[in-house]
Amino acid sequence: MVLLRTTNYKPPTIYAQSLESGTTIEATVTEILEKKEIQLADRLQHYQKLELRVDSERDKGKLLVIENGNIPVVNQILYKKGDKVTVLAQKDPDGNDFYFITDFVRRDSLVLLTIVFVLITILIGKTSGIKSLLGMIFSFFMIFQFILPRILAGHDPLWTVTFASVFIIPPTFYLSHGFNRKTSISIVATFVSLLVASLMANYFIDTARLTGYASEEAGFLQAAKGGAVNIKGLLLAGIMIGALGILNDITISQASVVEQLKQTAGKIGFWDLYNRAMKVGQDHIASMVNTLVLVYAGASLPLLLLFINNPHPFSEVVNYEIIAEEIVKTLLSSSALVLAVPLTTLLACWSYLRQSKQSD
């Protein structure tokens, strides 16, 4: 966040007195009125005087003059003409107006990226792509309309996610993959794997003495809700939601492998079918576990940089809760994925061979 003040400059049209304290508006940088380097806190820092045009409906078109870089900051952002930003109006103890540029307005880029994603999914996936998008929308609906409100209301996060998964898994799976035996097998395998993953997560979170307060967001949430949210349960619930997404992929893929092998092999024994399917599953495990590690590494890159730049020994650094929490998340998700492969294969082999016997 960059602190900006309206001082030493009074153009004919200035946006100052019409805002209430605490109001957030959107504006566009129309001019760079001044740009130079100034000495602050024993170092040089870039300074800008910006003219912004208000884009919000209230006082739309009025001008606002803001200084950027007139106080010491670490992560200074320099603005250019045409940048769209959000501005927070405040008053200092003397009643004078001052403003924060709190962030960039990113909606246009997000909308464009969403359109590109939807088009790619539909053009390549066709009907299956459309159905997968519907499943994704339903998952978002359940998360934002059921899971999050109940957790904020003080309900146990673990039981909330467990209950919600009963309503998320079948509709999203059937929407994406159709009403068939393969999908039903993957649903059962996902439920069982998720149960095993939750038991493992509960055990290792307890034994590792993880509190869930490794992130600043958890502390802010607890302060905002007056201690009503079970932060440790929230950590466990987050692991379950992450595992649910991973299990969706692995269970449907492995059930599909068994289905195709049974169709091409004709008469085949249970263990022969199982071993053939597991050879494919083992390749899937190898790639997916590596993918998970890379995904978590990418998401935690700043943390990893601090990790290798730490002067303390590895045995001490790995013991920090913020590090231990990421390790537990990665290993639990990977374990759930690995366990789901033989479980799904067993269920699929039993189901398809049973179907074959009944048809004979």
UniProtKB/TrEMBL annotation:
Query: Which residue windows are transmembrane per the record?
Result: 109-125, 132-152, 158-175, 187-205, 229-247, 285-308, 328-353
- One Pfam family recorded for the sequence: YibE_F
KW Transmembrane helix (keyword) present: yes
Which UniProt keywords are present, listed alphabetically? Membrane, Transmembrane, Transmembrane helix
The reply on keyword Transferase is no
Superkingdom, natural source: Bacteria
Name this polypeptide is given: YibE/F family protein
Q: Which organism is it from?
A: Candidatus Daviesbacteria bacterium RIFCSPHIGHO2_02_FULL_43_12
